[in-house]
TrEMBL record:
Function in brief: Choline transporter.
One Pfam family hit: Choline_transpo
Keyword Transmembrane: yes
Designated name of the protein: Choline transporter-like protein
Compartment annotation: Cell membrane; Membrane
Lineage: Eukaryota, Metazoa, Ecdysozoa, Arthropoda, Hexapoda
Similarity-based family: Belongs to the CTL (choline transporter-like) family.
Keywords: Membrane, Transmembrane, Transmembrane helix
Amino acid sequence: MACCSRDSSDELPHRKPRGCTDILWLLLFIAFLFLLIFIASFAFVYGNPLRLLNGYDTFGNTCGTSKNEKIGNLSLSGLDTIDKSFLFYLDIKDVRKTMKLCVKKCPDHNLNTFHDIEKFYKDTGSKLCRYDFNFNEVRDKRLSEQDIANTITLPLGPCPPLPVYLSDPVLHRCIPKPVKELSSQVINSLYDVLNSWDALEQILADLYASWKEILALSFLSFVLSLIMVAILHMLASVVAWIFMLIVSIAAVGGTTYLWWTYVDINKHLNKTPDEQMLAESVRNEHAFLLYSVIATVFTVIILLLVIVMRKRIRFLAALFEDSASCLGDIPALFIQPLITFIALLAFFAFWISVIVCLATSTYPGVKPLHPYLDFQQVTETQTNARSAQLNISLKDFKSE
């Protein structure tokens, strides 16, 4: 046998030509991917996270935004409410059926007369009446207080029933402070509306409200990681001590902060009457108690590990020196964490955006409305089969 020859037994056995496998599952994956793209597109087109945070008025306008779209023939829909980020209930005794308006500021004192409402509007620019209501028309007619009470200050507008109580913004809703004139049942109904949100909606609202802080902390963690890598490269011999010290301080500090937050929430709830207690605050109390206990357990474990590992600090120092040498020989390894960080940040940002928009992609419903008594004419148009719409013609009330 020649040196360049080969035995026939060395030849590879005959193999079938390779082809695509799992075609069915590939098609299912592609179909699932297109479905996710469709859902994300639907969420971004119809979603509005501000509906969770600020709420929307009777006419479908989301408070605190300039991108409200016109809804059917409603003349007061599609308004610019960028400077009106608070939701005001005209009749606090029946918040589920009364008219709701976006206002610039909640009442900061009791308003006992119609002229007090007008003065509050002139002083603060916050209009507690319908958007198209004109105070000058009422002043020119010189109506008596009884006529105003019968035709203007009504649960369905155009102005709120008197008196209007001092209110505080709670979740961007104007909620009156408890007074003797308001029964506990009224206060309970107000907080029942706030507590009627699903836990998921409240979580998503918190995420949308704090997305800037979350993004800033993400970049801060990335910068701290780069600093740790730089320290690892330059001070490999002492980086083990630095790492254990930073981890210990962070664990103790984080646990202390969690316990302090829990105690602060607990004290606040103990001072809050039961009828004014938000379910979200109660859940926060339980959540922070659970987080604090878990963090305490992990902190104890970390401190015990640090105490044990301090006797093997030389081994850790040698390990970090080898790691620093490897990073020095292959600097391209620094790129991989950067790519991973960008990919994960983009994925979670996109995922949270889709979830938040999807939770707010509902179209504001339109219900039949019994209008207030106008001076001359109130006409109601019959709706089509898809939705009910109300067309109120106002001849005496003109926009200012």
